[in-house]
Give the backbone structure.
Amino acid sequence: MRKIVISLAVIAALFMGSSQLTAQEKALIFGIKGGANLSNFRLGGDMKNYKSEMNAGGSLGSFIKYDINPYFAIQSGIDTHYRTSDMKSKQDNSTVKFKYLGMEVPVYAIYQMPIGNRKLFVGAGPFVGFGMNAKLDGKKLFKKDSETGKATMNRWDYGIGSIAGFDFGKRWQINASYQFGLIDLCKSKSGSMRSQALNIGIVFKY
């Protein structure tokens, strides 16, 4: 995890440093973004007795894009997202609500196809996430248990993602992305849960 965080920090530093060299060419673009998401978890071990159903949430964040040339770019940002999922028991059909508030930093390598002053694009890359609050039926999952001294759920997440969208010239972009978590978020050795989310967003660039 530390290596991944350090790698993303280095990428971000190089990214920001390159802006001083290319600002006059307007290769570096900033913006704000908002969107909606559908998310759930891939469950394993003892948690296979439950099904994590996809529920809707939302996100707000910042946007940064660096055009290396007309065909290739690096796109990133910081997303603050709210995600939910219904955890449904396969034994008695009872349901408990999972609620999650966290932050995520994706870094995408982008291939873009110019269409006049617009661009159609696809990309892929890693992401790192950090949970600020997580509750299951009101129980705080990041809070350490008084008996074991351990939290139920890991705050850190990382994985891979993909993105596709359309860039409307100077001001707007729409995109859809998918994140596939690789880390086991469950601290119990008997069960496992890994995140996944589908996001649809709109960006205002300035």
